[in-house]
Amino acid sequence: MRRPARVLAVAVALAIGGCAIGPDYERPQLPTPVEYRGVLSPQDATSFADLPWTEVFNDPQLRAVIETALANNLDLKIAAARVEEFRGRARVARSYLGPNIALGGNTVPAPGTPDDSSYSLGLTLNWEIDLFGRLRRANEAARAQLLATEDFQYGVVNALVADVATTWFRLREIDEEIAIIERTIASQSASLELVRSLKRNGVASATEEMQALSQLAGTRSQLPQAELTRVQTENLLRLLLGSEPGPVARSPQPFGFAIPEDIPVGLPAQLLARRPDLRQLENELHAATANVGVAEANRFPYLSIGLTSFFGLISPELGSLLDGKDPAQDLFSVGPFVSMPIYQSGYGTGTVEVAQAQLKQSELAYRRGVLQAYRETADALVVTDKTRGIIAETVIRRDAALRLLDLQKRRYKAGVVSYLEVLDAERQLFAAEIELAQSQVARVVGYVDLYRALGGGWTP
User: What angle do CA 74, 77, 79 make, to 5 degrees?
Assistant: First the structure.
């Protein structure tokens, strides 16, 4: 075997058999609760987060809105573009594992030749032999970072579906509040006219008229604020849809969304694989682990071993070199080169310290992310549970306030009570209806938050 071939064979064997410096990635050991806090019954691996969002949100109008958001949302488009960027970065890192071939030319002074120079033209082969795994660790880190970027995109989908659903439900609840305010204004206007009629007949006083007028004005003042909130919520939803501010088409039907009584949430251990933000944090931790190996490999001598080959033509005349005629001569050379850092003024050690500190940050961020996921799930569970009782009691309060108002109006007409009793009954009914609408949307939003916290709403 010729010497260049032997050198190449040895280099390839070293590259294949060489070990990679640095720690291998292992998922950190994390405390995992047996079940979520707030679950009402024992759970198995079944989770409603495994259902597609089209089944979880069965409102046709809402499904159409979410589909529009997934097609047009700009944050999602940016996330997709980042995936393409890091896919290219991963390809660049992988390319360093193979040879690099380039066309090269050179001229050297050569007195006594026809052109007083010697010309060469040929191909150059450079191949760094990854003896200690520096390039493999860099490729590993780039691959993990690509996966983290893909998980970030999935996380945007997960958050976008939840944000659109939440904004939609809040918009429908604001519609309900405005309907309550308008209905209350109509009722209080009728009461004011009744007081004025009784005043003209000498039954009611001017004080009662002013009391009725004051309460009516107070209720009317809440209408512009509710309409302002509705416009702002519509603008927010339009932003999520990737559109300019404007109205959002929806049916005039009253707000309503059925939530199952029994919601399967699965087991806490499933979050690590289900939630895209936790997958992203784990892949970033993997990348940080591989980068420690890159930094350690860069610190030691004899780690960057390369092979340079040149084959082409050499000639004392440029014309002969270009037209391929004599006196051009074949030229072939092969030789190794070694990069041996001798003194780096602490650069290598500092680079390793930076990589290790970044690794520690990534591990802590992953641990914190897992705890945050458990907390978000527990919070959403308690909301969906406790708001059920709030709604039940508020319905009783609302119904009682309706009966009380009717009774107080009858007693006022009969002269049994003052108009203050009627005003107080109207205030109680108005507050109960608003609270009921807010409690209903709070339970629905808690249901959406639970779906998002469990990692629902996206598919690879």
Answer: 110
